[in-house]
UniProtKB/TrEMBL annotation:
<dbReference type="InterPro" id="IPR000836">
    <property type="entry name" value="PRTase_dom"/>
</dbReference>
<dbReference type="InterPro" id="IPR051910">
    <property type="entry name" value="ComF/GntX_DNA_util-trans"/>
</dbReference>
<dbReference type="InterPro" id="IPR029057">
    <property type="entry name" value="PRTase-like"/>
</dbReference>
<protein>
    <submittedName>
        <fullName>ComF family protein</fullName>
    </submittedName>
</protein>
<comment type="similarity">
    <text>Belongs to the ComF/GntX family.</text>
</comment>
Length: 237
């Protein structure tokens, strides 16, 4: 009887609040997911179909062994909308869904799969300055890391107080690479080096553009004793 009642309530709430995909708006049969399996698996273009060490044409700085983005950024398209919903509309579940998909994709990248499986590693979401964190209420890179961790459950996420962003930089959009680098110089600080020492540090962010942010963070973390760095993002701009 109880079960029948529960099913009835679930049925009614399904009519009032149908579970729809945040991307395509169609009914989503995946429970506790904001994105449907079609949008996660078919909608976007793989940014690194050949599983190369880099998904861009950038030259990696010393100590950074790979840079991989899940999908090609589509200016004005669905992926941009999704990342906007995640960052500015508080739909943090999108970050978790995207992070999980990124984790699944890395299992098909032999170099990265091997590195993440056999080396002591830690996930490092690109830290937000505390003022920005207080304003937004969450760090989108941390949400992506949470999803990633559901697939790679042996990996821990670096404690929020271990590596911090000291400098509250202006938006990087529209700045040249040189200005971006100047803007970000010494933006990050490692407060607890033990957390990253001798480890493979997996830096996680939403979008990879020029690498100015992630490579500055990589540089800081390497200086504090990290062994190697991998940069993983959802989108490749
Ligand atoms: Zn969808």
């Amino acid at each position: 009887m109880k079960k029948m009642f529960q099913n009835m309530v679930r049925g009614i709430s399904g009519v009032v609040f149908p579970n729809v995909c945040a991307c395509c708006g169609l009914e989503n049969t995946e429970h506790q997911r904001l994105l449907c399996s079609f949008c996660l698996q078919e909608r976007f273009e793989d940014a690194n179909p050949d599983n190369a060490p880099v998904s861009s044409d950038i030259i990696l700085p010393e100590g950074v062994i790979a840079q991989h983005a899940l999908w090609q950024f589509d200016k004005g398209g669905d992926l941009q909308d999704l990342l906007h919903l995640l960052k500015y509309e508080q739909l943090t579940g999108i970050g978790v869904d995207l992070g999980r998909e990124l984790g699944v994709r890395i299992k098909k990248h032999s170099l990265l799969k091997q590195k993440l499986s056999f080396f002591p590693a830690v996930l490092l979401p690109v830290p937000l300055h505390y003022l920005k964190f207080r304003y937004r209420g969450f760090n989108q890179a941390f949400k992506i890391s949470l999803g990633f961790q559901q697939v790679w459950n042996d990996l821990s996420i670096c404690d929020i107080k271990s590596v911090v962003r000291d400098k509250n930089t202006r938006t990087q959009t529209g700045l040249s690479l040189k200005r971006r680098r100047q803007n970000l110089k010494n933006a990050f600080k490692v407060k607890k080096p033990a957390e990253i020492k001798d480890k493979l540090v997996v830096i996680i962010d939403d979008v990879f553009t020029t690498g100015a942010t992630t490579f500055e963070l990589a540089h800081t973390v390497l200086d504090s004793g990290a062994k190697e760095i991998v940069v993983l993002t959802v989108a490749q701009a």
